[in-house]
Amino acid sequence: MSEIIPVPAPATPEAALVQIGDVVFSKSWVVTPIGARPIQGTQLFVTDLSRTESKIPTWAIVLAVVLAFFFLLGLLFLLARENRTVGYLLVTVQNGDLVYATQIPAPNPFVAQDINGRVTYARQLIAAA
User: Fold this and answer.
1) How many domains does the chain have?
2) How many CB atoms lie within 10 A of CB 61?
3) Cβ contacts of 60 within 8 Å, gap of 6 or more
4) Can you tell me where the transmembrane regions are (predicted)?
5) Does the residue 114 lie in any domain?
């Protein structure tokens, strides 16, 4: 069984350039809650486990039932829709023996775009190292 050799953290802290969840990237280091590694050779994986659900809101059902007795136009309330995004994005960082995954909640569809942009920037930092 191989022994895990700890990699020392940088002597002088570098400025954080991008943060993805609780993973921080600087010019030459990636820092996770379980350890720090040089950025060279780091791999990033993103899995989008969010989805957008569409449903008829409760208020529309109540109004449709109440107004259906008086006017058939009350059934038009059933056309109302409410969109809701649920789930999370899973970002995995891998460098040698360091494997760390973080879950980032996605309360709206724009979070996925933001995280993908951050991952693209982090990949550019890795390529430049």
Assistant:
1) 1
2) 13
3) 77, 78, 80
4) 59-80
5) yes
What are the tens digits of pLDDT across the range 53-76?
A: 889 888 888 888 888 777 777 777
Q: Which residues have C-beta within 8 Å of that of residue 124, sequence separation ≥ 6? A: none
At a CB cut-off of 8 Å and minimum separation 6, what does 121 contact?
17, 18
Question: Does residue 10 sit within a domain?
Answer: no
C-alpha of 56 from chain center: 27
In the DSSP assignment, the letter for residue 125 is H
Answer yes or no: is 7 within a domain. Answer: no
Task: Indicate the pTM of the whole model.
Answer: 0.72
The verdict on residue 81 lying in a domain is yes
Q: Are 18 and 122 in contact (CB under 8 A)?
A: yes
Domain holding 89, by residue range, is 18-128
